[in-house]
């Protein structure tokens, strides 16, 4: 019989990319994690890791095994649901995560609504960026995440996760109130091609959206300032230091001398809900997903 704990170590190596990273996430030493995989390989009579440069990689046999492991995890989620089939009313603990804007506009009101409608359900919210949310789901630390679609996310075909579209969040061009485009109802991004720009920091998941939107309009923005927080960017704009693309979901500091102008090009980012495979059927998660879908249409109005 396969030892599921050892199988989970192998899944972690695949998820995190190295034995050392997997061991860190599982609170093992690297040698202990390696021992778990070696023992699993002996139990199955196949090699699961092979040398690659200074590290290791999963063998074809390990890849085949992981396909079954992901199915086992999904079946386990459904088995837990079957055991609680008589508990149709959401109850217990629901653990969620999201990036700051998603928490402010979606997860916080969702939690408030659930508290009113399902008093036996306790919702916990954790701020986490996209990659961390997928790690938390994989580790079983959360049950539901709201994430931004990025090129670095697991593919939609990844059997470990159930990712579903939630909403499109448009980017508005934000300019100082005194700017020539401030009075426009809509603007073509090409009209701001020669401006100085304020953009998200290089490792931000939103930076590719901004650069791609400008590229699709035929120019590369002259980025002179970088920021991590949308309100920091808004303050830079307010002081006449450049223009910026800022998502409509981002609530900016009131009374700043700035104007948000809609773009005819319709640049946007996509927000997704994500659970472990099979996890969306749990009553608490299903109730949360219903609330999020109800909130989504009004969030970007």
UniProtKB/TrEMBL annotation:
Q: Which Pfam families match?
A: HTH_1, LysR_substrate
Q: Where is the signal peptide?
A: none
Domain HTH lysR-type, residue spans = 2-59
For this UniProt record, give its keywords in alphabetical order, as a comma-separated list.
DNA-binding, Transcription, Transcription regulation
User: Which CDD domains does the UniProt record give?
Assistant: PBP2_LTTR_like_6 (cd08423)
Q: Show the GO cellular component annotation of the record.
A: protein-DNA complex
Q: Which organism is it from?
A: Streptomyces montanus
Q: Which family does it belong to?
A: Belongs to the LysR transcriptional regulatory family.
- Return the InterPro entries for the record: LysR_HTH_N (IPR000847), LysR_subst-bd (IPR005119), WH-like_DNA-bd_sf (IPR036388), WH_DNA-bd_sf (IPR036390)
Question: Transcription regulation among the record's keywords?
Answer: yes
- Keyword Transmembrane among UniProt keywords: no
- Name of the protein described by the UniProt record: LysR family transcriptional regulator
Q: Name one GO molecular function term.
A: DNA-binding transcription factor activity
């Amino acid at each position: 019989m396969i030892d599921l704990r050892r199988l989970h170590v192998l899944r972690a190596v695949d998820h995190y990319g190295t034995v050392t990273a997997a061991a860190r996430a599982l609170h093992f030493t690297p040698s202990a994690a390696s021992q778990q995989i070696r023992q699993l390989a002996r139990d199955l009579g196949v090699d699961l890791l092979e040398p690659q440069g200074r590290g290791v990689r999963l063998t074809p046999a390990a890849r085949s095994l992981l396909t079954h492991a992901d199915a086992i995890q999904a079946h386990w989620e459904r088995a837990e649901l079957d055991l609680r089939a008589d508990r149709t009313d959401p109850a217990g603990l629901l653990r969620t995560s999201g990036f700051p804007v998603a928490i402010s506009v979606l997860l916080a009101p969702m939690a408030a609504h659930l508290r009113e409608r399902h008093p036996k359900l306790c919702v916990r919210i954790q701020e986490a960026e996209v990659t961390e949310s997928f790690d938390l789901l994989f580790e079983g630390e959360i049950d539901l995440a709201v994430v931004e679609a990025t090129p670095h996310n697991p593919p939609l075909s990844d059997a470990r996760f159930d990712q579903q579209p939630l909403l499109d969040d448009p980017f508005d061009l934000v300019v100082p109130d005194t700017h020539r485009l401030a009075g426009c109802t809509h603007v073509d991004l090409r009209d701001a091609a020669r401006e100085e720009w304020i953009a998200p920091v290089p490792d931000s998941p939103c930076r590719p959206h901004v650069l791609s939107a400008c590229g699709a309009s035929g120019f590369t923005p002259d980025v002179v300032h970088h920021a991590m927080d949308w309100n920091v960017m808004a303050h830079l704009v307010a002081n006449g230091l450049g223009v910026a693309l800022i998502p409509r979901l981002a609530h900016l500091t009131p009374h700043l001398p700035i104007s948000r102008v809609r773009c005819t090009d319709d640049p946007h980012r996509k927000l997704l809900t994500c659970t472990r495979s099979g996890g969306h059927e749990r009553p608490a998660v299903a109730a949360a997903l219903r609330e999020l879908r109800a909130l989504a249409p009004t969030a970007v109005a």
